[in-house]
Amino acid sequence: MLFKQQALLRQKLFVLGSLAIGSLLYLVARVGSLDRLQPICPIDGRFGPHGQDEIPLRALQFKRGLLHEFRKGNATKEQIRLHNLVQQLPKAIIIGVRKGGTRALLEMLNLHPAVVKASQEIHFFDNDENYAKGIEWYRKKMPFSYPHQITIEKSPAYFITEEVPERIYKMNSSIKLLIIVREPTTRAISDYTQVLEGKERKNKTYYKFEKLAIDPTTCEVNTKYKAVRTSIYTKHLERWLKYFPIEQFHIVDGDRLITEPLPELQLVEKFLNLPPRISQYNLYFNATRGFYCLRFNIVFNKCLAGSKGRIHPEVDPSVITKLRKFFHPFNQKFYQITGRTFNWP
Ligand code: A3P
Question: Where does ligand 1 bind, in terms of residues with CB under 6 Å?
Answer without folding.
Answer: 98-104, 156, 190, 257-258, 291-292, 304, 308-310
